[in-house]
Batch of 2 targets.
Target 1
Amino acid sequence: MTTAPIHPTSETSIGFGSRVHSWVISVDHKKLGMMYIGVGLLFFVIGGLEATLMRLQLLKPLNDVLTPHGFNQMFTMHGTTMVFLVGMPVLLGFGNYLIPLMIGARDMAFPRLNAFGLWLFIFGGLLLYYSFIGGDGLYGMGGAPDVGWFAYSPLTSKAFSVGHATDYWILGIMVSGFGSMTTAINFMATIVCMRCPGMTFMRMPLFVWLMFTVGILVLLALPVLTGAQVMLLFDRFLGAHFFDPQQQGSVIFWQHLFWFFGHPEVYILILPAFGMICEIIPVFSRKVIFGYPLMVAATLSIAFISLGVWVHHMFSVGLPPWLNSIFAASTFLIAVPTGMKMFNWIGTMWGGNIRFTVSMMFATGFLVMFLFGGLTGIMLAVVPFDWQLSDSYFVVGHFHYVLFGGTMLAVFSAVFYWFPKATGRLLSEPMGKWTFWMFMIGLTLTFFPMHLSGVLGMPRRVYTYQPGRGFELWNLISSSGVPFQIVGVLLLVTNIIKSLINGRVAGPDPWDAWTLEWATSSPPPSENFPKIPTCTSPRPLWDRKHPEDPDCFYE
Amino acid sequence: MTPQEISMTSIPHTHLIPSSAPSRGKVGMACLIFAECWFFAGFIVAYLFYIGKSSSGPLPREVIDIKPVLVNSAALIASSFTVIAALRGLARSNMGSFRFWMLLTIVLGGYFIYGTAMEWKGFIVDHHLTISTNLFGTTYYSLVGFHAFHVIVGLCLLTAILVLSLMGHIHVVRDHLRVELVSWYWHFVDAVWIVVFTTVYIVGMRP
């Protein structure tokens, strides 16, 4: 394979300054998508460092790496960063990059709105992190927000949160949330209006279906959070009483509003990962996805049911038993469509000619880790079980299996799968395999013992623990997983930089795939396709490669 | 036709379905309105949740005078019809009719804002009810205020269109859809008022 630069002109003849300028002013969905992913991965490193500090603090009992206050700030910033500045932008970035290519369009429906959304997100992220400098306010207290990522009232009231830390939390998330909403509007308009001739809804790649559903959920959930945050701002600045118990305001009301947003948000973070897995597993199993219509139906039912499960975050509040029962039932119910997906992925792999590339290894790892996180989720839906383990490390272990073992492993799988499309270069497979095992070992070491320390009674969000309660060993193991994950991240970053410079040239279709993004060159030209493609089946590229046996004969 | 007879270039075109998708502007505006609905839903739920929970006065029944509100509401609802008439005028390229009905829409919307301002003046000056007085004030000013804010945004858009049309920059073929989308937003603002009215002035008045 050659190692010559792919674009000799663009690599050499344009200066650095004007190349940066061309990215800043770009409205091209591909550049915007890559910037989303790039900035998201940058925040991933920052959020990871915050987690590392927490794990250092919890390495042994009565440790003093962080002050109690600093620990509160770290878990708040870690959670907020990972959800709003890593998960959402990275996943929306993949959607931005892939949706127009997958449906055979030249760009998103509103390219300038798209750029506006990206810069809102970046500005929101900077605003949140500016709190480290500006959060002190006039009172000389505070710094970064320390109220937890769900910012329960009355912790956020003026009396308990002096200075401007909470205000930066509100405004940073609100601004980046506006960015996500514009992106969601763009996704919906693009998917409904911009599909190439022949691309019916039931021929769309499942990733596009999943992003369509995510668009609906973003438009539905984020405005509720924005509304709740506006109420909080009114409380803090205008003396309103939305969440002020002294004037009969209800602190539980914040929890309802937050989790009405918060649970769909969980699905906003996992559905795109499902979509990636739906694209990657069939290609590396050399089989059509098993049960396409069922996958679509399961996706829509997950989105629908996710609107009615939020109280399972509030079982320990003391709401009436009948209410808890209803929400426990709906939470069990949501496991059914999720289980269908699980079985459909396994059904796709079953009997397939599986190629264990790094991307497929991450996808398989996703299946295992997400299954584990999903099962502990069902356990937590049992109300008495939740009463026992709510706010313990069991919950922390559960959602890290889902979000790290689920979403992030799918993102790594997607990075290895689509990197050659975006850059024209393949990532190094041997280095990728090391990355995979580092993450698998690191994840298991860090997050599995949390279930045990949680069952033993270790509460989350407490900066230290007493010796002699049986927590030492499990915390030591948890912390010992961190170096593996750091090595994994370093390997991935090295791999990306090295492959950008002299990776193997990928060609338009390195994986022998079937969807339209592989029908154009790598990287795609700025207009995506020289000629708008047409689509005759769910696997248009298969039809082109195998005209003697096209998919449309079996529709 | 057997599969062997199909060549690379002749994948049967019966499988291609002509694209009859709606315009992206319509989908975009529909999505914006959908999101706005959920934004308002939070404030409406807050209002309903806190009815009768204020720990001190003044209470809704002591301060609300329904008569001017009814006139206000009539003006806003009428403006939904006048904007339809304006669009009809635009579709017929009758710019005189278009401008007349647009102006009337803006006047009616402006009257609504004036009415809201007068109601707030009465509350603040005469009854000493502000956003920080009690839960009624908190939820009332937030909900009605956000609705009024949306009316003002709509008025800005409508005024911009009227000014552009007076300058001769509105063209029927090119701009009909754009004006129609602004009218969708205006109808949405109107529909939200019906819900807000029901919440604040009917449900909220019950003892």
Note: The domain at 35-51+59-205 of chain B is CATH 1.20.120.80 (Four Helix Bundle (Hemerythrin (Met), subunit A)).
Target 2
Amino acid sequence: MENLILIFISTILINNLVLSYFLGICPFLGVSGKMESALGMGMAVTFVMTLATSISWLIYYLVLERFGLLFLEYIVFILVIASLVQIVEMFIRKYSANLYQSLGIYLPLITSNCAILGVALFMVVKDYSFLEAVIFGFSGGLGFSLVLVVMAGIREELKFADIPKVFKGAPLTLITAGILALIFMGFSGLGGG
Amino acid sequence: MNQIITATLAFGLIGLAFALLLAFLNRKLKVPEDPKVKEILNILPGLNCGACGFSSCKSYAQNVAKNPDKFKPCRPGGDQVNEKVLALIGKKRSSQKQEKMIVVCRCGAEEKDKKTSIDYQGLPNCQTAHAMGGAIDCTYGCLAFGDCKEVCPANAITIKNKKVHIDQKKCILCGKCIEICPRNLFKMIPNKNLGNYFVACQNKDKLKEVKDVCSRGCIGCGLCTKVENSPYQIKENLSEINYDQVQKKKPVEEGKNKCPTKCIDSF
């Protein structure tokens, strides 16, 4: 139990996928403009990430390891992620047309969100059990959503600020992301204690 | 050999399982799409230029099919396309006719006219050059790196001798060049079939400062306003045509000929 809590907290705060591994930067910069779409994106990624890690775990240990096909790891994981993203896309299109519109191109792009493939691969490297892997995937998604929402909040506030012209748009976004990463480094003391 | 077979089988079966799941869900979660959307999309020019305010022709078609009352014409499509779309959504054409417009670039200076004392070595695009203070001496004139040419979906813009030429036959009036030009040189003017005159200068400085940086700049002398029935007027040291007053070709032409720096253009 203690182990699970440790994984949960460390994946969200200390080893945050976006800010300390720098995975999934594309949707992080692309969808963090508006709070609503950031939340939707975060939820979609959390869902895909949790399911992807659990299904990948099952396939990895029940199929690939048993038949000695570990070299198929990457391609199978990608297959799993791509199919899940398709499913999520169908669900969102059916039940929330607005969210579908605001996520736009970034929704199918979850397929190539390296954070998700990253989580699936880390899970193998770290030799997690099934439950640990599920928690790892879920907290990885939560960490991603957290950062996305924080960033969206900051960017929404910055819209009202009088920003020098040279910093407007992408430069300021990148600087904000850098400062956020610095702040998140402060959490690295949490786990060592 | 054995490994290849197991790998193929395992991967094939996993893939098949997902494919079946997807196919099943696709049927279950199908969103019925208005067939009109596709028909409208077939009529539209399909340039995705964004002049209507929607991001693509597809989202324009979806919106038109959904709320026919909020119909806005597709400018690049012209009358023919709009009539077809209106017929599809069962609406009649509003009686007021769209005024024909053309886009002009209000800097007529060529390379030899523009004075350049700066050796600009930054990124070769207008946005950067403008932010850095400009690659030419005139702070109002065309930088001629061709941001407008890049952004034009219809390839209507060419740059010759550092001067922008717009092919009016190709121009679809999407207005992208108006947005991108950091010096705000593009403008839509009404097409009156009277030669389409415009003042090809945006320099609001006084005579000497203009003369220092460009030989074709408007110096605000006001000679063009002295013609009989002149539609010209001077605002902020810059001549301007009041297009509502343009009824005949003669006064505009005379004003153009009077201009000492030849900064009034037409085509």
Note: The radius of gyration of chain B is 26 Å.
